[in-house]
């Protein structure tokens, strides 16, 4: 189970259905909605400003979520998938978004619903990703509208992670782990 820690006396509010694996940390002024999940070594550090995460959002392995006192909070909507190793800093991500592996989102950028930030993309400070678009590159640029298949993937991914968390809870995976 992950760790929940206060910062300056403020404890995170983590819904009872949130799944947290070993090595994940939630610190300070953070609220996480129902059926969301934090995977191995994810860090949600709401120390200098708040972090809000909606329902059914997966924060995958080695993701860093952080804020800055200068630009304000980090807000992540519901049904968002944040891929392995991504970094989101003091930005806004609306509902139904897929953030690719290793992507970096900088202060004050906004990702509108039904959008994809490609793996490895760097979304610069203040950039707005339009709804229904794929952005990619360093710095990220609008490449094209998402396809119907990509839209289905954005919609199905949160369901998959709720199911994966249920499998872990049921012991289907953890019971097979062995120390060597």
UniProtKB/TrEMBL annotation:
This entry's Gene Ontology molecular function terms read: transferase activity
**Could you tell me the keywords of this UniProt record?**
Transferase
Name of the protein in question: Acetyltransferase, CysE/LacA/LpxA/NodL family
Q: Which organism is it from?
A: Chlorobium luteolum (strain DSM 273 / BCRC 81028 / 2530) (Pelodictyon luteolum)
Per the UniProt record, the lineage of the source organism begins with: Bacteria, Pseudomonadati, Chlorobiota, Chlorobiia, Chlorobiales
